[in-house]
Design goal:
Largest sheet: 5 strands, antiparallel
Oligomer: single chain
Number of helices: 23
Length: 497
């Protein structure tokens, strides 16, 4: 019977790349169709990143690492069957003399036993912080003899100038050991890497072989050209509303009186409505509704009013940019609502984070919103520059609307003089671990709220959410995360109806 082909979900690959999330595939017996599927995932992943030149080389590396991991699992079953101690040097050498012939002659038996023993091979692929990471895990930790053999092979790579050179020299030797690993390192060298890009570590009961590669210098150059060209043309985008800019200046004046601020707000119908809406929300739990602007200003405070201004001003600017993408805005409102409620429950003593959470959640995807809302002539102007500089329009679409939307949004926020905390969250909401220390917690909170909405829409799986961030907010299990998620979704849905 022919192997059943497993189809690649291209939308999930795009989501993982744009959000910096890992893609993970686990197998226990590694049948042929699974090997093919893993290769297809890698090829689609690299193609989406515009790194097609790496496909041939990394596919070989992936196959080599997966085969080695599977072999390590089989070895554990074999040694157990032979009643040999794999950690004893004499018994290890004795067992390895017949390991290959015995297991190959009865491979189905050994694969079934390692499946029953729960021995797996796990492939992890991730694009984050301008680097591609490919890992192969297996839950058979290396012993000292295996670890030494690997590093002996790695040290031999320096002897060879090419794959052909390695083949000729190693195949002439009686043992011929280590050929696959040596060729793999030589393959990496063909795309400008060295053995330093390859790591072997043991942690938490797993052996992890890891390859970390930067995106190609040509792609990074194209990325910078597009981002810089977009930044140059930000002047062509609608400016932040003048009345809000003036009010923001007034808020920054230490001599300004609350009565002056209240008067300025009362002259704008949209601001007045938004302020009263905020102060009469459940967050303030007032006994009776507030209808007085001066009182509302005192209740909300300077920071709260500033965040309100950025909310209203951004909505006006985006509307002037040529319309809006309803799906993106629905996601933005939902993320903002989740972020605010998560902040109140997970950071109850951090008033600044609570006050900033809603606006940061609302504007986290500002780069995407601007890209989707910009006038066609604005985007065609950037595309024409890309054509002149030899950048493919397909790469332009991928980079600008997806992979690089955090950077684009942050540059626009800086142009509009947004405060540092909002700029940082927009820039780092997919990689909060590298956000400036003062804004790392807020960035992590928005990351969590953002991914919670995608989890609810079945666009991502729980394992893809960074465990360090979950632990930081004391979320230990998927059931705990799901319970919080379902409660927020229920409240948000009732609020919107």
């Amino acid at each position: 019977m022919a192997d059943k082909k497993v189809l690649v979900d291209s939308e999930k690959i795009k989501m993982a790349i744009r959000s910096g999330l890992p893609l993970t595939i686990i197998t226990y017996t590694l049948p042929h169709d699974m090997e093919v599927y893993m290769g297809d995932i890698l090829a689609a992943f690299l193609t989406e990143l515009g790194q097609e030149h790496m496909i041939q080389y990394l596919t070989y590396c992936q196959q080599e690492l997966i085969t080695n991991a599977k072999k390590a699992n089989t070895k554990r079953i074999y040694f157990k069957d032979k009643n040999l101690d794999i950690n004893n040097e004499f018994e290890y050498n004795e067992g390895m003399q017949d390991f290959k012939r015995t297991t190959l002659n009865n491979i189905a038996y050994y694969l079934e036993k390692q499946k029953r023993a729960g021995l797996y091979v796990k492939l992890v692929i991730q694009y984050r912080n301008k680097k591609i990471k490919m890992e192969v895990h297996n839950n058979s930790t290396l012993n000292v003899f295996e670890y030494k053999r690997i590093h002996d092979k790695l040290s031999r790579v320096q002897q060879y100038t090419s794959v052909d050179d390695a083949l000729n020299q190693i195949l002439d030797e009686t043992e011929g050991a280590g050929l696959g690993l040596i060729i793999m390192i030589l393959m990496l060298e063909k795309i400008g890497m060295t053995e330093e890009n390859f790591q072997v570590i043991c942690e938490k009961g797993e052996t992890i072989t890891r390859i970390i590669l930067p995106v190609s210098s040509s792609t990074q150059k194209d990325l910078d050209i597009i981002s810089n060209e977009f930044e140059k043309r930000i002047e062509d985008l609608p400016q932040f509303p003048e009345n809000i800019t003036k009010l923001n200046t007034l808020l920054g004046d230490p001599d300004a009186k609350m009565s002056e601020i209240a008067l300025q707000i009362s002259n704008d119908v949209a601001l007045t409505g938004e302020l009263l809406k905020q102060v009469n929300s459940a967050a303030f739990s007032l006994v009776k509704p507030c209808k007085n602007i001066s009182e509302a200003v005192k209740l909300v405070g300077i920071r709260g009013i500033k965040n309100m201004l950025y909310t209203v001003g951004s909505l006006k600017a985006f509307a002037e940019a040529g319309g809006s993408n309803e799906e993106l805005w629905n996601h933005a409102y939902q993320t903002a609502f989740y972020a605010y409620n998560l902040a109140r429950n997970l950071c109850p003593n951090d008033r600044d984070i609570i006050e900033d959470s809603y606006i940061c959640g609302l504007l986290h995807d500002m780069g995407k919103i601007i890209f989707e809302s910009s006038h066609p002539e604005f985007l065609s102007g950037i595309k024409s520059v890309c054509v002149k500089k030899g950048i493919e329009s397909e790469l332009f679409e991928k980079i600008l609307s997806g992979v690089n939307h955090g950077e684009i949004g942050a540059r626009i926020a800086e142009k509009w003089n947004f405060p540092k905390q909002i700029v940082s969250v927009i820039r780092y909401h997919h990689s909060p671990e590298i956000a400036p220390p003062d804004f790392r917690k807020l960035s992590a909170l928005i990351y969590l709220a953002d991914l919670m909405t995608h989890y609810q829409n079945e666009e991502i799986e729980f394992y893809q959410i960074d465990s360090n961030i979950l632990n930081f907010f004391n979320i230990q299990t998927e059931s705990q995360f799901k319970k919080i998620s379902e409660k927020l979704k229920f409240v948000f849905s009732n609020r919107m109806n």
